[in-house]
Amino acid sequence: MSAKPIVHIYFDAPQWGKSKLGAKKLVTKVVEAAWSKVPNRPKGTVPEVSITLTDDAAIKVLNKDHRGKDKPTNVLSFPDWDSLEDIPAGIGEVPVGDIIVAFETVQKEAVEQEKSLHDHFCHMITHGFLHLLGYDHMNDAEAEEMESLEVKILKTLDIPNPYL
Hints:
The protein is an alpha/beta fold. The protein has one domain: Metalloproteases ("zincins"), catalytic domain (Collagenase (Catalytic Domain)), CATH 3.40.390. The chain has helices at residues 14-18, 23-37, 56-67, 103-112, 117-132, 140-156; strands at residues 6-11, 45-54, 75-79, 92-102. A four-stranded mixed sheet has the order 1-2-4-3, with helices on both faces. The longest helix is centred in the last third of the chain and has 17 residues, at 140-156. The radius of gyration is 15 Å and the shape is globular.
């Protein structure tokens, strides 16, 4: 049994391939880095995650259907568990959920925030993955915990703090 997360990547929009981002390798690297830094993760568990790289049109439909917001967004997460504590320990591979990322929104935000597409994309994958593990930012304490873990994970990938 591999201790590294199992990552399934689906390309649902041609922009990802055209971007020359190397998204397939990058996604796996980011998820592995994130999992390695999550405190109190269940021992003997290998998270399995599906990540779909799509466009604004597709994510807009999902955002409207699942969040009631009729606009595209950067990343959506659909967790299989309510919290990290709910994920079973000691049973090997465990599906943890799905992440959907929209190319145009992530690219636009990267430009607006004066970040590279690479760095912002890595942040969005990290952010989405932490949501699958029960992290959230609905209040200040949750946001502080989640953001500090994101910064720690991104630092291991030589990516600067996205919140500065």
